[in-house]
Structures are given as C-alpha cells and as structure tokens.
From TrEMBL:
This is DUF6198 family protein. PANTHER family: INTEGRAL MEMBRANE PROTEIN, INTEGRAL MEMBRANE PROTEIN-RELATED. It comes from the Bacteria. It comes from Enteractinococcus helveticum. The chain crosses the membrane at residues 51-69, 76-97, 109-126, 159-179, 185-203. The keyword Transmembrane helix applies. Keywords: Membrane, Transmembrane, Transmembrane helix.
Length: 213
C-alpha cells in the first residue's frame, strides 16, 4: 500500500510540475510548449481558462484513441480522464500561483522560458517513472504509433506537435489578429524539452548506479 501511494505521489508530482511549467511559460509570454499552445491561444481569445481548455482537448485526445483502437482500447486507460481533469486544475492553480511573474524585459522572458522547459522536463520524467498512465496527448501519439509501426515514433511525435502549433497559429491569427501563446519560445520548448529529459535520465541513472555501488 505504501509503495502504491508513493507511485501515485510521484505521478501527481510530475503532473503538477508540468502544469507549473505551462503556467511559467505563459507568464514568460514567449510561447508555450506545443501541447499547451492550442488551449493557451483559446484562453487568450475567450473567457475560459487554460486549464478548462486543456481538459477539453485531452478529452478529444482520449476519444481519438478509442476511435483508433476500438475494442483494443485498454479500459484501464480511461484513467486518463481523471488525470486530464487533475492536470487542468493544476494548470489553473499554477496560473494563480504565478500571478506575480511579470518579466521586465526580453532577457527575463527567456530566463523564465528556460525555467518552464526545465519544469516540464522534470514533470514528464516524474510522470513516466511510476508507469501508471500518461497524459492523453502522449497516449494519442503512442496509439498512432502502434497503428503505423513502419513510421518512427519520433516522426509521429514531431508531426503531432507541428500540427498543434500550426492550428494554434491559425487560431491565434483568426481570434486576435496576432500571435499570442505561440512564439519563438514554442519552438525552443519543442526542441529542448526532450534533450533536458534525456539529461535528467542520464544523471539519474549515473547517480542511482553510484548509490547502489
């Protein structure tokens, strides 16, 4: 029981760190990560929050997984629904907690964008460790990969992220006539989050190996 509680705690910590990373990137105002770009743009152009739109988008991702896999969809993965709700609530909580964050210049914006990347990377790493579930965006990418195994996972992930960014750019221009929520920081996050995750993994393995010896 204690071990299960620890796994859930680590998983929730990862979700919270990702949510905080999204909030910090929004406050930095250089663009969010691809997965958060569409909800962010919609929140800027309407009255609903980023967290609410993230929940709705993730519900769509879950529905697409079920549509693709049909009877092969693991019933257990419906756990993605409460996970999505928690993630959305964490984002709105993080937005509240970061109200004070108002960068004074372009350099500060980049500093906070880098901080957001680090937070998201740690969040993803912690989320993966317990192997409980995953956020629906990652679940959809993996689902498409299982159906199209002749296409590398990285290619599918890149295509997925690029599609989200393009949709976000078009939506931002239509709703507000300018780019809000999708900027150079979005490209930076898309490139660097995976690199930071690999770095965290390497350090963890090295530290863990040293500790065990």
């Amino acid at each position: 029981m204690i071990r299960q509680l620890l796994r859930v705690s680590v998983f929730l910590l990862g979700i919270f760190l990702m949510a905080m990373g999204v909030a910090v990137s929004i406050r930095a105002d250089l663009g969010t990560s691809p997965i958060a770009s569409f909800p962010t743009v919609l929140s800027f152009g309407t009255s609903l929050s980023v967290g609410v739109y993230m929940i709705l988008l993730n519900i769509v991702f879950i529905a697409l997984q079920m549509l693709i896999l049909r009877r092969k969809f693991p019933v257990f993965q419906l756990i993605q629904l409460p996970v999505s709700i928690v993630f959305g609530l964490f984002i709105d909580l993080s937005m509240y907690l970061t109200q004070w964050l108002v960068p004074g210049n372009y350099i500060e914006q980049w500093v906070w964008t880098a901080v957001s990347v680090i937070l998201v990377a740690f969040g993803v790493y912690f989320e993966m460790q317990p192997r409980i579930s995953y956020l629906p965006g990652n679940g959809l990418v993996f689902t498409i990969y299982t159906k199209l195994q002749n296409i590398p996972y990285g290619t599918i992930k890149t295509t997925f992220d690029t599609t989200l960014v393009v949709v976000s750019v078009v939506t931002s221009l239509l709703l507000m006539g300018q780019l809000n929520g999708v900027r150079e920081g979005t490209v930076f996050a898309a490139i660097t989050v995976g690199i930071v995750i690999r770095g965290i993994s390497a350090i963890h393995k090295r530290w863990g190996g040293a500790k065990s010896s």
